[in-house]
Amino acid sequence: MRVALLSGGVGGARFARGLVSAVDPAGVTVIGNVGDDLDVLGLAVSPDLDSILYALAGLHDEVRGWGRADESWRALETVSALGGEDWFRLGDRDLGLHLVRTQALRSGEPLSTVTARLAQALGIEAAIVPATDDRLRTWIETPAGSFPFQEWFVARGHRDEVDGVRFEGEAQPAPGVLEALAGADAIVIAPSNPYVSIWPILAVAEIRAALAARRVPCVAVSPLVGGRAVKGPADRMLARMAGGTTPEHVAGCYDGLIDALVVDESDPAGPLAVRRIVTQTLMTDLDASRRLAETVLAAAA
Ligand code: GDP
Ligand code: CA
Q: Nearest ligand to the C-alpha of residue 225?
């Protein structure tokens, strides 16, 4: 079975792990968000692609929820001691990957090529493709002003309410993205933050058009459990920008693009424009992620 998965970082990566244990990984293409990407200390960092890479390689830190397991922070301690830029946490092991990626990008290699090379070096069988090789950046509109994504999320601790999101950059799909969508038996939208993880992928006009013109089922998984985000600001954003946190509000983020929404048992019933699939969506461990992926694929069959 061939599956194309649209994914943000942590929620998407957790789901991706379940997916590649439910189907042959060789048939899976993960299309990752790059709206969060940033330059830190001269290094090109792609947080969502890295969450996916680390999760699929089994190198991720379960407890922290991001970055690598068995991480240390010596380099960042030195940066702090020297008065350098230390607001964005980069671990020692993690830094190694950013060094390799940055060098490759500087030498002219596209992000998609570097990412494929990293995935291969980490022994990952699934394809991991950035939504675009072009520069695409998420901006967050708040009552306190407009901020680049990471400045709002990390530096300001996403404390500002969000009035809107905006995507800077004219972007074409990276090589492999449209092919994966066209060749898929099922398209899946991961339980990621709709506004800042999935919308930046859909901001690539040709990707949105491919989803709108799909010939196979597209199933989204809600990132909310009982109307609350498992982690992060998705619930607050939905409440403020969509007017609520029910499955209907989540489905509204993907208007015309999905055929079914997978929601948790604890979420309210109520009208829904697409098919509703009710199950346990909390991915407490790999088994839970795999069961969720199996339910999603059954819904797409
Ligand atoms: P980020 O880029 O690291 O913020 O990651 P994503 O956007 O991919 O994932 C963040 C979203 O994942 C949040 O809105 C969480 O509510 C959701 N999430 C995390 N773990 C789970 C889970 O176990 N089940 C469900 N349904 N959603 C989850
Ligand atoms: Ca992210």
A: 1
